[in-house]
Amino acid sequence: MSDQSLAELFPELDAFLPCATPDEWIAQALKNQDILLVDHANCEKKAASTALNLMYRYTEHFDLLNKMSRLAREELRHFEQVLTLIKKRDIPYKPLSASRYAGALRKHVRTWEPARMVDTLIIGAYIEARSCERFHKLAPYLDDELKKFYLSLLKSEGRHFKDYLTLADSISEDSIEERVAFFAEVEREAIESVDDEFRFHSGVPAAA
């Protein structure tokens, strides 16, 4: 799997993302693998929490309930796996401030329904797609254990992306193309602009 490009593995996901992760971020990640793993664990917890929040908020959507229930279980399993790696590597699991990434996307969520739900689902698709892309791009540079783990996450992250996008499309009263394009530019800005803090979803390192 590592020998295949993201476009070969997940063509729809690759086309969905507005840009590739900058090489400067990869270099920073390799220098800060402790922070990478701790923030990765936090991201898995947040992903599970987001799925559960959607389940509580939108109880009338049975397809959403089923997909988010499965997604939450998978994200918590991933959290447990990252936690095992953190413990094995004797990395302190200390609090980290959140990345600006998700907040930059979520501040544009519309406030009325079902637009609010549609935007939240589209943002979920971007978060999962970017995670998948970064796992894939990082993997060749990592030690064998971490490389194997990150490559093992690609299939589920790719499915989560598809689930979020499919739900947004099925729930929206109108075509989601305009909103997808809007959030693509927000996402591009978050990824390509200079970022003062290194996190799993941060932008170009300020020190680069």
Would you write up a description of this structure?
The structure is a single chain. With 208 residues, the chain is mainly alpha-helical. It has a single domain, classed as Ferritin, CATH 1.20.1260. Helix content is 70%, strand content 2%. It is built from ten helices and two strands, in the order ααααααααααββ. The chain has a two-stranded parallel ribbon with strand order 1-2. Helix 5 packs antiparallel against helix 9 and helix 7 crosses helix 10.
Largest sheet: 2 strands, parallel
What is the spatial order of strands in the main beta sheet? 1-2
**SSE pattern:** HHHHHHHHHHEE
**Rg estimate, integer Å:** 16 Å
Q: Can you give the helix content as a percent range?
A: 55-70%
Mean pLDDT: 96
Gap between N and C termini, in Å?
30 Å
State which percent range the strand residues make up.
under 5%
Instruction: Report the CATH topology name.
Output: Ferritin
Structural class: mainly alpha
> How many structural domains in the coordinates?
1
CATH class: Mainly Alpha
- Note poorly predicted spans: none
CATH architecture: Up-down Bundle
Instruction: Count the DSSP helices.
Output: 10
Total number of β-strand segments? 2
What's the shape? globular
CATH homologous superfamily identity: Ferritin, core subunit, four-helix bundle
